[in-house]
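Quick one before lunch.
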Amino acid sequence: MQRRMSDLAFQDYYPDDVSHCYGCGRLNEHGIQLKSRWDGEESVAYYTPKPYHTAVPGYVYGGMLASLIDCHGTGTAAAAGYRAEGRTMDSQPPLRYVTAALNVNYLRPTPLGDPLEVRGRVKEVKGRKVVVEAWIIAGGEVCVRGEVVAVQLPEAMRQS
Ligand SMILES: CCCCCCCCCCCCCCCC(=O)SCCNC(=O)CCNC(=O)[C@H](O)C(C)(C)COP(=O)(O)OP(=O)(O)OC[C@H]1O[C@@H](n2cnc3c(N)ncnc32)[C@H](O)[C@@H]1OP(=O)(O)O
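Model of the Palmitoyl-CoA complex:
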């Protein structure tokens, strides 16, 4: 089933108390503030790393790329969790996913300066766990591939 891209990003629905993540928190003025949305059965986000996100001159630091995979993966997992329950992301109670596992493979150097396209696809939704594969495209080439295992915080670990 095809879905239209919505105006609000997945991360825009995160409650204020969990919107300070360095990668995706809309309230973290020093962070990436990644914005992920559905694009058909895949999800997509865009980000252009800053000149100081350098690994070696001209190429993006791998930790930054891992952050993009991480936060696009957890955002996609949250959206998939709601979708699996047949409800919208502004419905209650909120689903709070964190990264349980992050795997990142750097296939080729990622050029610094180009806008990066981060894409995701849901592999599995099972109970409190969602597995998302994600990849980063620069200049039409896939430079990074990764996988995120996101798990909903157990009740005992939720602050609100
Ligand atoms: C409106 C929208 C609201 C949304 C609102 C969301 C806001 C949400 C804040 C956003 C923020 C973003 C976040 C950014 C990404 C971080 O940066 S998050 C920070 C880094 N991550 C952490 O600090 C997590 C630390 N770890 C933990 O808290 C706990 O280990 C976890 C992840 C909650 C899991 O613990 P647990 O609940 O006891 O796990 P458990 O019941 O044993 O396992 C559940 C399932 O997960 C699997 N699993 C658990 N750990 C692993 C692992 N390491 N590897 C593979 N599988 C695992 C288990 O195998 C099990 O799977 P099944 O057997 O059911 O198939």
